Structures
1.
Amino acid sequence: MRPSPDRRTFERPRRRIVGMRRLRGMIRKEFLQILRDPSSIAIAFLLPVLLLLIHGYGVSLDATNVPIAFVAESPSAEAVSLGEAFAGSPYFNVRKFRTMQDAVTALTTHQVNGIVRVRDNFSGILDPSRQAPIPIQVILNGVDANTARLVSGYADGVWALWLQDRVRQAGGEIRPPVELVSRIWYNSEMRSRNFLVPGLIAVNMTLIGALLTAMVMAREWERGTLEALMVTPVSILEILLGKLIPYFIMGMGGMALSVIMAVGVFAVPLRGSLGVLVLTSSVFLLVSLGIGLFISIVARNQFVAGQIAIIVTFLPAFLLSGYIFDIAGMPRAVQIVTHAVAARYFIAILQSSFLAGDIPAVIGPNLAALVLMAVFFLTLCGLKSKKRLD
């Protein structure tokens, strides 16, 4: 009688959660599909370049070459000198008018954004016997309150420098009771582009990361290629990893291209380490890819997935992340909502890395928030994904 075989002989071999051979096949298949479909390459590399060029050159908080009207009621030497001081400032484009009525008409028709009026008794401004001060009048268009405040500050600066120079030429000296010494840290050039471009990178990568997985996965649902994968031995985890890894590599390539443009094209200083930048960018990209993957699971149509990706990622990142509008100035309820926007944390990291360097007190908490969001969305994708067609 033959001995009974070991029971383990008939047991089904245990299957690994992730088979490296199957995963390599999925990744290879995904890269081949990317090469055959250039839309993914355009999203990863062409779209960030276009967005950076459009927003980098088009969006600016600097008020330069502002058109203003200069009215001198009496063309004295002092009035002419003050007009030349305003004309020599890089912040103003001076247009001279003879009467105040003409200047008001130009302001009303939006030909100029402000009026500098010098009265007829301005010639005696340096007369020590004069008791009452001789003011100059500055009228501004307050429709854009931010620009009006900037122009007002620039006008005060031109006036103060001109007055100090005239007093020095007359042999006198202005001794203010308090001497202010200003020191501007981290952005000494006062270029708004240094502040905006790092935030723009985060906004762009939010949209691009979500579109890479949302649109591409939705397209595969429409074409039926994912249905073909469902009948193969590939597990759902291997399918998800096979989708994430190639687009993660492409997204990091787009991120590297954006950083090169920020430093090379827009001359934004990079004071932090590349290692920290790569680490934080990787975590943030996982968040964006996870959001896009979840969108593709919920909406299996390209048009719907694209609309959801723009509404869920780009608009909140543009409006609620601190990219342009200061979060501290928002209502309390809106400030609470901003904690759900991943770009808020990445923008804080990028602005610190580019302008101030690696500050642990800034990078640590924001990176921890991004890690939690990445774990949340990727886990949600794993729980929501089922290897079935319904």
2.
Amino acid sequence: MTEIGSQIDTEQSSTLARGPFQRFLRTIGPGFITGASDDDPSGIGTYSQAGAQLGFNIGWVMLFTFPLMAAIQEIAARIGRTTGKGISGNLSRYYPASLLYVVVGLLFAANVINIGADLSAMADALKLLVGGPSPLYVVAFAIVCVWAIVFLDYTRYVKVLKWTTLSLFAYVVAMFAANVSWIDAARGLFIPHIEWSGTFFTTLLAILGTTISPYLFFWQASQEVEEEELKPTAKPLRRAPWQASRAFGRIRADTLVGMAFSNLIGAAIIFTTAATLHKAGVTDIASSTDAAKALEPAAGKFAFIIFSAGIIGTGLLAVPVLAGSAAFAVGEALRWPVGLQRKPKAAVAFYATLAAATALGTGIMFTPIDPIKALYWSAVINGMCAVPVMVVMMLMAARTDIMGEFPVQGWLRALGWLSTLAMGMSSVGLIAQWFL
């Protein structure tokens, strides 16, 4: 058997498992974890605010964003798997340094704010459930997240992340406990409703900034590189084109499942708060913990407990992803050794950056900065920052000197540009509202 044939046979046999469920678990990976981490405590706060303020009428945005989100994440994953480099790594090699540093700087700042807000939300949720000091919980959660990502074996850590995604089902349970009007929910999901108001466009941009966020692009592309480096027979597709068909098939399945799961949870949160808080006239929701507290009188103790527990679970998933994507972006930009499969001694600067991002986020709790206001504006900044990043990604994915014989074409490229256009239009709409 030729070397190429042996590699193909090895890849095929490695993807076969004993049954459908085992094959499913082997298929899901970077895309599924990326989609689940998108529903972090800050995202939960955004969806809760959307449902409380606009009711079921905003539900259609979750359906609208699904193909756009799936397309742009698949493109990010293809860049990583094809080139063997993440987004930042390719930026550093093919684009001006000024663009690289601006993009990485904005990403790092937004991620630090997001980490701080998520840790604060997790601590507040635990305080709601058992009492105690929030600052102590913030520090404890930060230590747990950094310890896990630094010291756990990579393959074991990925399994932990996969199982942590189960915490998101708390919001499906909460939805069924909220006595949702399914006719109104279906109408809001399938019939677009647009309002010309600052509240609507700000909420729309916040949702888009939460569902289509730059850190997700960087994380999924880098994780594709990690997965490829861990397999002895796998190589960047530019160097091993015979692996492309199976790799792209896995990426598409993984990404579609991950983004569908992400948007399903987002819709469940919107429906829960629309059926309870909006119906009761409670529209002033600034955070996920505000939503949890308001749910108790509106939907009962059970919904409150489930919602609060979900905040903690999603934070334990999202904080390492936020810190990790920041470390990947900085490390690749400066061409350090990067990768969660590396031992700490082999990638000191990478892990130090990861820990520093978490420490800076933790520090927000001990400053006069309001983490809720910072979170809100980080979502808006993410939405606006995403546009230039997406433009660069789309241009990068079309270049044969970067992608070799696998440039992104056809309907995937069209959806990627449509996603970029949607983000751009919502940003313009928000800016117009500020001046008008």
